[in-house]
Automatic annotation (TrEMBL):
Gene Ontology cellular component terms for the protein in this record: cytoplasm; membrane
Topology versus the membrane: Single-pass membrane protein
GO molecular-function terms, A-Z: glycosyltransferase activity
UniProt keyword list: Glycosyltransferase, Membrane, Transferase, Transmembrane, Transmembrane helix
Top-level EC class as recorded in UniProt: transferase
First-listed, main subcellular location of the protein, grouped into a coarse class: membrane
Family recorded in the similarity comment: Belongs to the glycosyltransferase 92 family.
EC number: 2.4.1.-
Name assigned to this protein: Glycosyltransferase family 92 protein
InterPro entries recorded: Glyco_transf_92 (IPR008166)
Subcellular location: Membrane
PANTHER family reported for this sequence: GLYCOSYLTRANSFERASE FAMILY 92 PROTEIN
Organism superkingdom: Eukaryota
Amino acid sequence: NRTFIISPYFDGRESKVTRVIGIVHHEDVKQLYCWFCCQPNKIYVSRAKIDVHSDRFEFPYGATDIVCLEPQNCDPTHVSIHQSPHGNIEQLPRFEIKNRKAETFSVDFTVCISAMFGNYNNVLQFIQSVEMYKILGVQKVVIYKNNCSRLMEKVLKFYVEEGTVEIIPWPIDSHLRVSSDWRFMHDGTHIGYYGQITALNDCIYRNMQRSKFVVLSDADEIILPLKHPDWKTMMSSLQKQNPRTGVFLFENHIFPKTVSTHVFNISSWNAVPGVNILQHVHREPDRKDVINPKKMIIDPRKVVQTSVHSVLRAYGKSVDVPMDIALIYHCRVPLQG
């Protein structure tokens, strides 16, 4: 199989299309068709435009938009994808087309954490990050979960029941040989970093109608406002200063977990596996010739395709947020020294 479907979304921003977020082999898939079910027994078949995202990092498979014009006189609720315009629709899997109905925003900020994998067990840092997100004004954290430790499962269950976390199962390694590297190492793998880019794109569309902003970052990263008490006041100020901007980029700064302070050495936390971010407050120095990667807060309705550190296609402008306004606190192994 060379085509994998994540989810179809209605996208009426330019014309009336169904945009299917998927993963496709960049050379082997030449044509696909959307089969729309309109009235009973009325099938409408539309040839798809297969748009493999440019940021594939040389892997054979990449995040892909499979885009089909919808029939003018019908708003299909489901679609099937097939490599031929002929066949029996009964034998094809049907996918519900999301975002069909306009909704009012239910949350201001949704954080997308793409691909939790590798028996993830950094429990303490995860809890601290989620609690920090809540202080900053986040109402929803969406996690594309491949796997994690049993203790982490308990933590996720707590946050799901609380209503903070939404889990999207992400069993990508059952279908493709995944790499935990972001670029292709010519090692027979199919797709990079557990399909992170596909998950991020899905997360944007999944939250397009329900979240005012979507935040694309990792579980060990927190966008810290330095002049505002929370993200809402920061973003309203940034939007005033930057009208027609859909993408706000924040600079990543590493706070090495190897350099500690003894403040907040809380003994009752010692039994919890993971990093205590409150003890790691020293930032690696800036290097003149090194550009720090960025992560983003976006208006999802203005974004068409995203990569990890920038968007690939958007309707609005992108703006780099100065470091005195906010920076990304990224607590991990050091890059320097």
